[in-house]
């Protein structure tokens, strides 16, 4: 590369490439071709791989952005060998994740592996806001599955639960590399506001709140639906399993059902006493009468179809048996004829001396034998076919018994208990 018309004197020539540069001092003489050489080499750059970081995390180094993690990986190339510091930022992190490494251009560098794990919040009621290190990361859905707060670097973090009807609670969460950290806060509802009009007292306004802890022992997990309401009211109250709920003194009702059941199969009232604490356990929950009736109606339709098939099968067996009976009786005619004629012809055949007459009698005996043999086979087959009416003779009574049992159970469920 030639650069013309350079002013004579001492000059500095800089070669800039990727993440590095080379500087050379040279004295330029007039009317003279001045030469300068650089030592640029590809192997002077280092490459490092980032693994296990959460997607969307942004990597910075030396004050500039390097790239973004995708599918848990990112490869940084063309880096200057030597000590290097990286900072990884994520929206849910209060502070960046920093790494200091020594990069080499002559040998492969060890991958930079993320040291951290997930934080999972258990039994978070619907609407509860969850923040980690002061940054909101999730809102409770009230489901039975743990609430995933995201991936955080190893160390101690602060998880805060807050809501419109809940007292704010904070608790530490120690994250260890490669493990899930599960936390469960004992949330307490804010005391319900009370108001007393002049000259009139609101019932129960003078009573203080009590504590309720609701425990799920149904064993149904996600297949259980439950609600808590005040007796006489239809509006459900917010509650979480195994949480300390502060409720005004009074009577409440806990209802539960299996998913898909139209009615609340389990319903039990209880009283909250001012200043007291009550633990209420939801036992195994069966299906309601409405669900059982709907299920039995489907079974009854199947039983009616089975009864119809049994009636049709019995009718077909009866017809087949009758046809076989008459066929068997008809088959006995040649059998009887062959036997009688054989007994008559055989003595004559034994005493006959004329060859032609004996041959004719022999043919007649063979015909009688065939009539007797094949007629007997036909009669036997007809007898077997006729006996088919006695097979599966219990299918119709069983179908009737099954239908009667279903009708009896339906009558019981539909009758006033």
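^ Assign residues to that structure.
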């Amino acid at each position: 590369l030639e650069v013309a018309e350079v002013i004579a004197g001492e000059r500095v020539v800089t070669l800039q490439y990727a993440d590095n540069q080379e500087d050379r001092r040279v004295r330029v003489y007039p009317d003279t071709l001045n030469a300068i050489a650089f030592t640029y080499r590809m192997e002077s750059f280092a490459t490092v791989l980032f693994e296990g970081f959460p997607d969307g995390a942004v990597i910075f180094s030396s004050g500039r952005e390097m790239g973004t993690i995708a599918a848990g990986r990112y490869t940084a190339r063309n880096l200057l060998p030597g000590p290097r510091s990286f900072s990884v930022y994520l929206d849910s992190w209060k502070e960046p994740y920093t790494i200091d490494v020594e990069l080499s251009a002559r040998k492969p560098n060890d991958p930079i592996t993320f040291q951290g794990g997930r934080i999972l919040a258990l039994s978070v009621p619907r609407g509860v806001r969850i923040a980690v290190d002061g940054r909101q990361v999730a809102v409770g859905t009230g489901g039975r599955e743990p609430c995933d707060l995201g991936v955080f670097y190893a160390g101690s973090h602060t998880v805060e639960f807050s809501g419109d009807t809940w007292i704010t609670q904070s608790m530490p969460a120690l994250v260890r590399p490669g493990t899930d950290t599960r936390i469960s806060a004992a949330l307490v509802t804010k005391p319900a506001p009370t108001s007393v009009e002049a000259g009139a007292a609101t019932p129960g306004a003078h009573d203080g709140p009590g504590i309720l802890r609701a425990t799920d022992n149904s064993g149904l997990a996600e297949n259980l639906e439950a609600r808590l309401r005040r007796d006489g009211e239809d509006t459900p109250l917010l509650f979480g399993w195994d949480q300390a709920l502060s409720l005004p003194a009074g009577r409440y009702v806990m209802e539960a059902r299996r998913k898909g059941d139209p009615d609340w199969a389990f319903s039990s009232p209880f009283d909250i006493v001012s200043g007291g604490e009550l633990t209420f356990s939801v036992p195994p929950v069966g299906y309601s009468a409405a669900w059982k009736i709907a299920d039995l109606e489907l079974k009854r339709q199947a039983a009616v179809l089975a009864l119809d098939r049994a009636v049709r099968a019995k009718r077909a067996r009866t017809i087949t048996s009758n046809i076989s009976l008459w066929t068997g009786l008809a088959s006995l005619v040649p059998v009887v004829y062959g036997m009688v004629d054989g007994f008559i012809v055989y003595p004559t055949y034994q005493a006959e001396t004329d060859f032609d007459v004996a041959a004719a009698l022999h043919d007649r005996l063979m015909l009688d034998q065939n009539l007797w043999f094949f007629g007997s086979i036909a009669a036997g087959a007809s007898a077997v076919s006729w006996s088919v009416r006695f097979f599966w003779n219990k299918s119709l009574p069983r179908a009737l018994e099954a239908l009667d049992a279903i009708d009896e159970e339906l009558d019981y469920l539909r009758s006033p208990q």
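The helical segments are 289-351, 355-386, 395-414.
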